[in-house]
Amino acid sequence: MARIRVLVVDDHRIFAESLAAALAAEPDVDVSAAGSGPAALRCLDRGVAEGRRFDVLLVDAELGAGPAAATGAAARGVPDQAEPAVDGISLVAGVRRAQPAVRTVVLAEKDDPRRAALALQAGASGWVAKDCSLQRLLAVVRGVLRDETHLPPALLTGVLRELTAARKHRTDSERLVEALTPREREVLRCMVAGLGRKAVAERLFLSPHTVRTHMQNVLGKLGVHSTLAAVALARRAGVGPAPLEADTPPGQEPPGQVAPGRVAPGQVPPGRSLPGDVVERGGQPA
């Protein structure tokens, strides 16, 4: 019998461990629980390293947003700067990029069409109420492994409306970005990367005055009044940040390469160990 490896990610420890225990009672399920986004990423990486990849991630929709997250970190003696909060949607997107074979289901306390749509856009395969029956949850877990997408019927209309609106906004944003000159698009990518005017000037070998002019032109053509709004619109249009390595031409970065001295997302720096709420039920310790 093929076993299903499930990772429950919820900063409400009692809920996470209770759900893990319930799922572990199934004869074909091995389940672990992580109490934060960073702990979940470490657990996923460990599973890959040990040849015991997870199949399904069950993620709290409000992960990292409530007092339980801060309380849990304090209880473990983890300073805020040592383990930054990772919200549920960001975790879904990160796992989708790093381990696309892992199916993600979001567990929510209430129906929220907008957040459900965001979760689907980030790569989630399902949205399930936290108070659903164990049989319903198991059906969803097994369904997403067959590449099914699961949503409560009551959410379907609202989610479709949100996705349609998001597609329209993306199309409008893409049209505005296409109106920029190649140099202005370069400047915009630098803005998305968080570079200031001086850094952009040094990177593109331009004067700060010229960069200021380009930035003003970008804001004007995009119809926004701030760098933050321009970056948000660029993101909607699918514009990625310029690579931070000055000697790497845009779009030519080797896949998966990380510059010396930098740490990839979700990776623990060498020689440093961060504690995390990870427990295992029905399998080996995670």
TrEMBL record:
InterPro entries documented for this protein: CheY-like_superfamily, Sig_transdc_resp-reg_C-effctor, Sig_transdc_resp-reg_receiver, Tscrpt_reg_LuxR_C, WH-like_DNA-bd_sf
Region annotation (Disordered) ranges: 240-286
Pfam families per record: GerE (PF00196)
GO terms classed as biological process: phosphorelay signal transduction system; regulation of DNA-templated transcription
PROSITE patterns listed in its UniProt record: HTH_LUXR_2 (PS50043), RESPONSE_REGULATORY (PS50110)
Residues annotated as domain HTH luxR-type: 173-238
Record Gene3D superfamilies: 3.40.50.2300, Winged helix-like DNA-binding domain superfamily/Winged helix DNA-binding domain (1.10.10.10)
GO MF annotations, alphabetized: DNA binding
Domain (Response regulatory): residue spans on this chain: 5-145
PANTHER family, alphabetized: DNA-BINDING TRANSCRIPTIONAL ACTIVATOR DEVR_DOSR
Name recorded for this polypeptide: Transcriptional regulator
Species, as recorded: Streptomyces gardneri
